[in-house]
Design a protein that fits this description.
Blueprint lengths: L11 E6 L10 H9 L2 E4 L5 H4 L6 E4 L2 E2 L2 E2 L3 H12 L4 E6 L9 H10 L4 E4 L4 H8 L10 E8 L17 E7 L5 H10 L7 E6 L7 E6 L3 H7 L6 E5 L9 E2 L7 H6 L4
Parallel strand pairs: 1-6, 1-7, 2-3, 2-6, 8-9, 11-13
Antiparallel strand pairs: 4-5, 9-12, 10-11, 10-12
InterPro entries: 4pyrrol_Mease (IPR000878), 4pyrrol_Methylase_sf (IPR035996), 4pyrrole_Mease_sub1 (IPR014777), 4pyrrole_Mease_sub2 (IPR014776), CobA/CysG_C (IPR006366), Siro_Cobalamin_biosynth (IPR050161), Uropor_MeTrfase_CS (IPR003043)
GO molecular function: uroporphyrin-III C-methyltransferase activity
Enzyme class: transferase
């Protein structure tokens, strides 16, 4: 792997994982890449303190929000390729890790198709950072031997096959699920997950104003509405949630038996 500071290594792309927000969670190599950048193409959720590590770079925001992209993915690919062809070192900075729901694979394909060099620097994924801050172990010898990551904002959510991803001995981590959490809860319970399965919502993890909230699966949608949870947030479903430091947010814990009984009551 060539040194990022090699003056001969011009005209290339470096995909960098910015981690879950806190600049202290960047890798050493990520910081090195930021300091070498001529052009910084960044997502909207990247913390400003991370952007400030590249004061020399020309910044281009390609922020994405639900159902609204400032620049479509094809446009981002073309933008990156165009700048690299001028001989620039282009750092494509993504929240979390580039290869976990970051469209990093698509951008690597586009750069390679153009015959240009590309490197990927991994980052601490949003789920791992959020779970660590909430003291929520995603796996545990006594409670969970498997963990799955899914996107909660995908097309045709109700038609996705999530059977077996959540339940006893398993942990399910859902990215981008705040807007669709009522549908998510309904889908999981329809697939047989118990209504009283613990669930956590980890909002703005590692950033100022972060919250870790805990309730039961049947109360997920109502709790998100009551607490006015905003993206970015991670949803964790599984027995390991009970081990976390998250605040209990079930409106009335006396409802637990009712939720467990469901329609039988």
């Amino acid at each position: 792997m060539a040194s990022l500071l090699d003056p001969q290594a011009r005209g290339r792309v470096i995909l960098v994982g910015a981690g879950p927000g806190d600049p202290g969670l960047l890798t050493v190599r990520a910081v090195e890449a930021l300091r070498s950048a001529d052009v910084l193409v960044h997502d909207g959720l990247v913390d400003r303190r991370v952007l400030d590590l590249a004061p020399q770079a020309h910044r281009i925001s390609v922020a994405k929000k639900r159902s609204k992209h400032s620049v479509p993915q094809d446009g981002i690919n073309a933008l990156i390729v165009a700048h690299v062809k001028t001989g620039a070192i282009v750092v494509r900075l993504k929240g979390g890790d580039p290869f976990i729901f970051g469209r990093g694979g698509e951008e690597v394909e586009a750069v390679r198709a153009a015959g240009l060099p590309v490197e990927v620097i991994p980052g601490v994924s949003s789920a791992l950072g959020a779970a660590a801050e909430a003291m929520l172990p995603l796996t545990h010898r006594d409670w969970s031997s498997a963990v799955s990551f899914v996107a909660g904002q995908c097309k045709g959510l109700k038609d996705q096959d999530w059977s077996g991803l959540a339940g006893k001995g398993r942990t399910l981590v859902i990215y981008m699920g705040v807007a669709t959490c009522p549908d998510i809860a309904e889908k999981l319970m329809g697939d047989g997950v118990a209504p009283d399965m613990p669930v956590a919502v980890l909002e703005r993890a590692t950033l100022p104003g972060s919250r870790a909230l805990r309730t039961l699966l049947a109360d997920l949608g109502p709790m998100v509405a009551r607490e006015a949870v905003q993206s970015p947030a991670i949803i964790v479903v599984g027995e390991v949630v009970a081990l976390s430091d998250a605040q209990d947010k079930l409106a009335n814990w006396a409802r637990k038996a009712e939720l467990m009984l469901g329609d039988e009551g």
